[in-house]
Amino acid sequence: MELVINNLCKTYPNGVKALDNVSMVIPHGMYGLLGPNGAGKSTLMRTIATLQEADSGTVTLGTINVLKDKKAVRQLLGYLPQEFGVYPRVSAYEMLDHIAVLKGIVKSSERKELILALLNRVNLFQHRKKSISGFSGGMKQRFGIAQSLIGNPQLIIVDEPTAGLDPGERNRFYNLLSEIGENVIVILSTHIVQDVRELCPQMAIIDKGRLLFNGSPESALQSLNGKIWEKSISKEEMEAYQKQNNFISGKLVSGKPLIHIYSDADPGNGFRTANADLEDVFFKTINA
Amino acid sequence: MKFFIFEIKYWLRQPMVYIFFLINALIIFGATYSDGIVVGGSFGNIHKNAPFVIQTYYSIMSLITLLMTTSFVLASTTRDFNYNTYQIIFTTPVNRLHYLLGKFLGAILISIIPLLGISLGVIVGCMMPDMDPEKIGAFSANAHISAILQLAIPNTLFSGAVVFMIAALTRSTIASFVGSMLLLLATGIAGAFAEDLDKEWLAILMDPYGSSTFSILTKYWTVSQKNNEILPLVGLYLYNRLLWIGISLILIAITSKVFSFTEKKRSSKTKMVAEDTEVIHAHQPLPVVRTSFNSWAEWVMFRMRLKYELLGIIKSPAFIVLMIAGLMNFIPSLITSSGMYGLSTYPVTYYMIDEVQGSFYLFLIAIIIIYSGQLVWKERDSKIEEIYDATPHPTWISFLSKFVSLSLIVFIVQSICIIACVLVQYAKGFYDIRLDVYIKSLLLIDYSGMLMMIAMAMFIHSMINNKYIAFFAYVVFVLLNSFLWRALEINSNMLQYGGKPSYIYSDMNGFGPFVEGITWFRIYWLLFALMISFLSVFAWVRGKEFSFKQKIKQIYLGIKSKQRRLLGVITVIWIITVGFVFYNTKILNTYNNKKEEENLMAQYEKSYKKYEGINQPRATDFKYHIDLFPKERRLSIHGSMWAKNKSDKTIHTLHFTLAKDFITDLSLKGVQKVVDDKKHNYRIYKLNHPIAPGDSMEIEFSCDYIARGFENEVSFRSVVDNGTFFNNFDFVPQIGYQPNNELSDRDSRKDHDLPEAPRAPKLVRNCTNQCMNNYLCNNSDWVNVETWFSTSSDQIAVAPGSLIKEWKEGNRNYYHYKLDHYSMNFYSFISARFLVARTKHHAIDVEVYYDSKHKYNVENMQKSMKKSLDYYTTNFGPYYHKQVRIIEFPRYETFAQAFPGSMPYSEGIGFIAKIEKEDDIDMVFYVVAHEMAHQYWAHQLMSSEMQGATMLTETFAQYSALMVMEKEYGKKAMKKFLKYEMDRYLRSRGTERLKELPLMMNENQGYIHYNKGSLVMYYLRDMIGEENVNKSLRTLLTNYGYQQPPYPNSYLAVDAFRENTPDSLKYLIKDLFETITLYNNKVLDASAHKTEKGKYVLTLKVQSQKFRADSLGKESEIPVNDWIEIGVYTEPQQGKKQGELIYLQKHLITKKETTFNLTLNTKPWEAGIDPINKMVDIVGDDNLSKVTLTEK
């Protein structure tokens, strides 16, 4: 099963173009959706998750018209929104049970077995009777992933799942995701380049509603190989470099700016060649 | 200071303060602009913007806004905790006092803003172009300012201080709301003290909001005072304000002191879960589950959602608080229900239901308003909506589970109320519990209305994508729906959402004539609610699309979806219902709205007023053949009257005004119809053979009434299944123009360009021409009546006079009655399933016709009838009928009325009255004695249609009843009764609509002819003696009993009293009857010392002021020259309130201040002037004072 997006457009009432003629094909496995904040990632995710309407274009999941037949999509969907809350005074087990019913698992014995397994899987088993409102950020995210796995989902959408997690938690979370991402479609939206690098065989970069890149991270890196140059500069010089059109990014290394530029040939002027990473791809794409 | 400013800036950016401000402004605007909305009560001649009214608004509204203040103060004090910013703030070196007080004072200042809406409401209301300028006084900035300074600010401070204390110390929202609810309740209880007249000073001190204080201190204010004066901040009012400001400051000080900066331990509920580091377990395949989405799965989802929503409501703090507060408000009032003259009634089921509706529904409606919104917004509020909405459940499950859960909650609450009522009934030893009435009233009629409320609220919340605006919109909807239709003078239940005919349950007649209309209107609106619920499901927000366009699209898709068939069927049924209801209410029956009704009355007057007083024959003898079919609500009457030309001129034309509820057929021989105005029910006939002076003609008529289908409002409740009760004016065609049918309301007359109509013609002495009509009717004098009355076989029918014959024919009962003595042309016909209690008293049948459920007071009624007969025959003169009857009728009206020989008496008063305590006033006994007295004062001595007419009937009936009561219950009981009368009189004169008049000129004003009448007659009796009063009354009866025109008027009565009053007391006649005279008697000083001989010398300094009041209550002092009693009491025995009266003498008092020296044998305890409160005294409770014993 593939998710096919064709010419998807969405403009908000305030005039913001959230999706501008986006087309892509998302196969099995983890799919990274990369873009800065406000790029339109969440709009795209929610549209696929049947929570928002598109102005035009189509989305199909296998044979299902996602924009029309929402019910069919929801039956195959696991969704972890970027932010979510829970009902007050409800335990993790109760909440999962609740969602399991809503996902059509009618038999209570099956629900119980599944939920306990899920809780085990995300290591919340011993906290199953505790109120979710008391969970830490990481635990809550794990709860979130558990709920998204209920009911054999064929399409899992996770929106910025690692925001606010510490590096350890982030790692654990990736492991979990990659495990489940083997047989189904998992769309991972993030603005953290590293996430995609580590997890996703396929990726897309969007910015300002437009799809800028679509393919494997390797192919993206390959296209930049040998064309990225770096240089340590002083802070005063920064502004001048930023104005150059081949400027990619600048970050501080040990308190001194280190800039990356794109150039087919050696630009000289103290630049040395650098290993291209996904971050360069990202900035190169969105700055272009 | 910076916290203060921060707080204010914060709130000014929030919509809440403006919404509250607008709500208050709207309420008060409504109260100012429309007479339909009442806040605290201002009516009659009081200006809509009178200082009194403004102060009343502020004192009442500051109680109502308690919850608003709670919200502000609570949010301000706990915000930093809720958002965890307290850690940041409390680690900085802020002064904790500044922090706390700054936030608190900021919140207080903000809390005052909504109250200012009151002033805006009054001012804008008065500026409305169609306001009657006579109802608006001069703008008084002082009134607003003093109300704000004296009431708004201290009250808000107090509310705030209490909430502040609870909030700061517990940091719990629930505790704070519970606290403010309790405060509201406590204030209510303090206010209840005020109702017992003796505990007023206590009520004043215990009144945190000054509202009881204000109403107690101004209760006897006259119209002119209310319009012009601001209650000065002195005396008890000042103490009250200072006391509660003081208490507020103390509370604030304590709170600031105790408040700790260390974070309170988190409560166990939100305990943080310890983090564990080890995370992902070994790869285990997840079990395979089957998912299904068939209807079984939907049922499982629904069941789970329902259970979840139910528990959610029941466990939520606001629900618990509202329930507790509601029950706390409701149960005490259930236990202590009281009626007239502080008298209680048997806890019959319909009274219990009234209590539920009166004191609990407010809370229930609050629950509905809050939760219908809370539930719709629940997922979005807890931010789980994205997960929830993306699951494959059908949308209707969300809607339906929320709707059903709230409906179930309301149902359970209603059931709890019923259980509480039944328990109270049992506890009071009352076992005639009507479970069916509870179920029909509360669970069918009312509950279905609540379902409509829930449906509408959820509809609004699913249509409007802002929680607060949606809440506001719904409240506005509720208000508009209740008031707008009336304001637009559209009173169709087909337009007012949830409208239904109003109904009255009667023990006699059950839900009677109301059932059909209520049922159909309920079906009509329930179907409508169902239809909008479909729209709610269609428009339900699922996901993140909020635009209105999207909703329209969703609704469009919804209507096209497969649910369209179901919706279509419902819509078709609804349309059929619309047609059926329309057919019944608009085609089978018609109804006029108020405006149309007024138009008809105005046109009647404009067209036919010119015929008023033209020479017409007068009715003399009536015969009626009445056939009543109670089950069908059908009445068929054939009657005849003889009309006699009593004038000295020939009569050529006959004019009739026909009864509007009946189809009337007049069969006259030898006449030509000149006018037949069906719209205004007026007919004119030209007589082929004119009636010569002294001649009579017979007029035959038939009148039919039949109830068809159902009406928008049940219009004629006189013909019903059990308890048909109507009088001759209801159906008999009236000869001539009837001024009683004119528009009487002053404003409506003005609207229709009709001249101002006096309430009664001016009183004139020696009148002949102006006194030709009595005040009951203008086309007959004393008449003979004979009736043949048939009814169904299970009922007894009663008509005026003696029962001549009684027989059965077919399946019906027949009765033949004949009046023993000619009487006033005013009598009633009654039929119901009666039990009859009969005894004979001398030669007179004493009968009570009553419903089998109401046997409680039957004996007492008979006793009162007998005692009354005894007193009246001894002191006034013979009784001319052979029977006295009390006949019960359904409580569609709540009065007792005297007709010749019979007194119909509503089941709502008297029949269920319960005399519990020994010193209770026996209302039943009193009312019967009063109505019995009308057999003389109205049915023998009838006054002419003129000012003072009711003095000869109502006032004398009051006097007679007082005498019978005093004989039975003694003077002490009278004191209590008269205290109520005094209170009623002094209060009512302050709310007079036009003007107060002296007793002998009163214009049918209840508080004058009843309440003041009692006081005046009792005082006159005290001064000139019972025999002199009775002699005067006897003379009147001898000279004017059964008098043919011209009828007597109040001059003759006053003259009779004057004749029997000694010269030294003649001034009384002027004071009591001819003018409005009031006194202010009080003790200035009372001290005593013991003499060597063991006697006591009492020095008593009293003040006596006498006032004459003009018609608006403006009083001017006149010199006093009156005989006034001075009295001394001994020390009361243990457990008694008052001791023995050891001295009581009338003294002629001629100065404002007088000092008496009295030598007494016993030690004086209390002494005073007019100690028994026999005179009309503006301040009655300072007439007695405790005596201080001195050495010398």
Structural class of chain A: alpha/beta
Range of helix content of chain B: 40-55%
Number of helices, counting only DSSP H or I runs of 4 residues or more of chain B: 32
Task: Show the largest interface.
Answer: A-B, 61 and 49 residues
Number of strands of chain B: 30
Q: Strand share of the residues of chain A? A: 25-35%
> What is the 3D form of chain A?
globular
Distance, first to last CA of chain B = 63 Å
Evaluate the radius of gyration of chain A.
21 Å
Can you summarize the main beta sheet of chain B?
8 strands, mixed
Q: pLDDT average of chain B, as an integer?
A: 87
| Count, helices of chain A | 10
How big is the Rg of chain B?
35 Å
Q: Which oligomeric form is depicted? A: heterodimer
Element string of chain A (H = helix, E = strand): EEEHEEHEHHHEHEHEEHEHEEEH
- Mean pLDDT over all positions of chain A: 86
Secondary-structure-derived class of chain B: alpha+beta
How many distinct beta strands of chain A?
14
The largest β sheet of chain A comes out as: 6 strands, mixed
Quick description:
Chain A contains 10 helices and 14 strands. Chain A has 288 residues and is of the alpha/beta class. In chain A, 47% of the residues are buried.
Primary descriptors:
heterodimer, A: alpha/beta, 6-stranded mixed beta sheet, 10 helices, 34% helix, 28% strand, B: 1192 residues, alpha+beta, 8-stranded mixed beta sheet, 5-stranded mixed beta sheet, 32 helices, 47% helix, globular
Q: What does the model show?
A:
The complex is a heterodimer of chains A (288) and B (1192). Chain A has 10 helices and 14 strands. The two termini of chain A are 33 Å apart. Chain A is globular, with a radius of gyration of 21 Å. With 288 residues, chain A is an alpha/beta fold. Chain A has helices spanning 41-48, 70-76, 92-102, 108-121, 137-148, 167-180, 193-199, 217-224, 238-243, 278-287, and strands at residues 3-11, 17-26, 29-34, 56-61, 64-65, 77-80, 155-159, 185-190, 202-207, 210-215, 228-232, 247-253, 256-262, 272-273. The mean pLDDT of chain A is 86. A 6-stranded mixed beta sheet of chain A has the order 6-7-8-3-9-10, with helices on both faces. Chain A has a 4-stranded antiparallel beta sheet with strand order 2-1-4-5, with helices on one face. In chain A, helix 5 runs parallel beside helix 6 (167-180). With 1192 residues, chain B is an alpha+beta fold. Helices cover 47% and strands 17% of the residues of chain B. In chain B, the strands form 7 sheets. In chain B, strands 2, 3, 5, 8, 11, 13, 14 and 15 form an 8-stranded mixed beta sheet that branches. In chain B, helix 1 packs parallel to helix 6 (96-127), helix 19 (435-463) runs parallel beside helix 21 (515-539) and helix 28 packs across helix 29 (1006-1024). The longest helix of chain B is centred in the C-terminal third of the chain and has 36 residues, at 954-989. Chain B is globular and about 115 Å long. Residues 262-271 of chain B have low confidence and may be disordered. Chains A and B meet through helix 2, strand 6, helix 3, helix 4 and helix 5 of A and helix 13 and helix 17 of B.
